[in-house]
Amino acid sequence: MEWSGAVSLGAMTQRITRDEVVHVARLARLSLSDAEIDEFTGQLGDILEHAADIEALDVGDVEPTSHPLPMVNVLRPDELRPALDRDLLLSQAPAAEDGQFRVPPILGEEP
Amino acid sequence: MTMHEPSLPKEWELVVGLEVHVELATKTKLFCGCENKFSHIPNTLICPTCVGLPGSLPVMNEKAVEFAMRLGRALGCEIHPSVMARKNYFYPDMAKDFQTTQYDQPTNADGQLALADGTVVGIERAHIEEDAGKTTHVGGGGRINDATYSLVDYNRAGVPLVEIVSRPDIRTVEHAKAYVSELRDILLAIEVSDAKMEEGSMRVDANVSVRPTGSDELRTRCELKNINSVRSLGRAIEYEARRHVDLYTNGEAPRQETRHWDEEGGRSTAGRSKEDADDYRYFQEPDLVPLAPTSEQIAEIDASMPVLPAARRARLGERSSVADEVIVTVVERGQDGLALGAIEAGADADKVLTRIQNDLAVDDWSAVTSESLAMLIQMETGGELTATQAKQVLGEMAAGEHGGDPKAIAAAHGFEAMESDELETLVDQLIVDHPDEWSRFVGGDDGDRKKMQGFFTGQIMKATKGQADGRAVAQLLGQKSAG
């Protein structure tokens, strides 16, 4: 499973590298200064360190708790509900045109 | 299935896997109660959930889940408990900045689809996900690369989809096309989607690679997008496979990437590179609880499953000896139930099938019943109607004339079987009236004989107002000239 190719809990000396932080920041379109990259590399390392403590335990018998509530199959009937007023919604957007949301050019932008 | 398929050089083998997105025909979207339909007026089928407003929460549509499982079972998949996942990416077609989909725990896995010729293609998975909105690029000729800005319509955002991922089991262009046709027929039979490629409710992406014939390696593949028809699918795969062969032949290799099929230009062009784009940082969707279908639910779905196209074809195949294409067409048009009923009512199977294929309207034939069709075919085989008359009567049956009753329609036209001695008298008279033509028929070369047969048949048809049976006339002329 590759939840994130960039983060490996296996590295013992350094939990996360500076390059990995830069990569993840780029994927999240975050623009970080050099100082921030250093700061977050340390902070993320601490978080991964904490996760590693748990990793050391044998949790083979413990059910994963991605969802804390013991609930499944929460479904709704296939019934129509009223739509939102378009003009009201578009009035909340930074830019609109012809009843549509107007967004900056999609390709070519880098953080 | 042979057709003219310009094949690859025989040292190379085609390897194709298909990813088909199908819009489910629910009334509402996957996670909210907005209407699931096409609208030309942008952003009118939206709510806080499908435009990703803060604080909104998704709730899964039970019909969409049922349809997805139905499709899974029709493809022979195992149904598993599943969780939804967020696929994170930055593109404004999803206002949330992620698509809610299934990742490592899809609802349906490990199925197969059998093509009309018996080839089996493995199905890796068929998972539930939401559709994205529609972007229109403004400026730069409408191309995304050169646009000055884009406009977004979220009407389609959140429409329920199932993505059906095949294994790379497809080896020919014809099989790829047959896979899509078969899948469409199944979707229509189980009534979960209208499956129209041209309108985008069924979208096909093709993963194409080639390998040296005889090897079982999987080489670098390219994913082809923007394929809008079955024909276009064939052209795109063929182009792409040749491109790969050319690259390898020149000592180069293709790059793993998404490519855009340009139908007008007949070529594919590079899109984003795949390695980079695949870093979607999937994680489990915390706002939705897992789906855990019970064995009762699955049993209920299985029990309600209609007979699928493959079995319907087999059913007609066992009862007739017509060409496979005839059966494929009749089943595709959904006229097989009609045919089966007529055959069971005692009509000749081959005649029923060919008559339906050739002469029954594709669009509206609801006025024709198995009983009336059986009666018509029996009238034809019994000599009450000629082939031409039967065709005409069937057309009027489909139009609902005279209550769709073939006897009444035939009677209204004065169609009735001509006694054979009556026909013979006519033929004898014609021979007397046209001695020159007759001697050319009897003594002429093949061309003459053919021409004169046409002449005499025409005369007889004229005299009988088209009611004579052409075959009987030909037979009589033959007998007379021999004797």
List the helices and strands and how they pair.
The complex is a heterodimer of chains A (111) and B (483).
Chain A: H1 18-27, H2 34-55, E1 75-76, H3 86-91, E2 96-97, E3 100-103
Antiparallel strand pairs in A: 2-3
Chain B: E1 12-23, E2 60-61, H1 62-74, E3 78-79, E4 85-88, E5 98-101, E6 108-114, E7 120-130, E8 134-138, E9 149-153, E10 160-166, H2 173-189, E11 202-212, E12 222-227, H3 230-249, E13 257-262, E14 267-273, H4 274-277, E15 283-284, H5 295-303, H6 309-319, H7 324-332, H8 336-344, H9 349-359, H10 370-381, H11 387-398, H12 406-413, H13 420-433, H14 435-443, H15 446-463, H16 470-482
Parallel strand pairs in B: 12-13
Antiparallel strand pairs in B: 1-10, 1-11, 3-6, 4-5, 4-15, 6-7, 7-10, 8-9, 11-12, 13-14
Helix pairs in contact in B: 2-3, 6-7, 6-8, 7-9, 8-9, 8-10, 10-11, 13-15, 13-16, 14-15, 15-16
In short:
The complex is a heterodimer of chains A (111) and B (483). Chain A is mainly alpha-helical and 111 residues long.
